[in-house]
Amino acid sequence: MGVTEIVGVYDADAGLLGEAAYVWGKLRGTRHCGLCDITHGTVRRKGEWDRMAARLPVRVRLLHLNELDDELRDAVASSGAPVVLTREGDRWRVLLGASELDGMTGSVAAFDAAVRARLEGEST
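The structure corresponding to this sequence follows.
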């Protein structure tokens, strides 16, 4: 069975308090999320991200730590966040970990290339 969904999990909570805590930590140099850097510019989500995600062959969801169901929470607990997971049947598998996301230095193109290479590798 192939990949049916991709889920990116930010290393931050959703909501006003969660976002404020992340921004404050980022300004102080105590918080960082490589996935945030890829998907967001200074203020909002990158248009380049939205266009890339729309072209991927499977659906992509982006979630914050406080938006996870139990199944996803367990998958993230074993890998840490930020992380990009793929759903294959009834399993979640790590596609890209925190260090890989950091290495992309905010590049949507690098993310796209890495995801496509891994998805193509799984279908061969």
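The longest strand covers residues 3-9.
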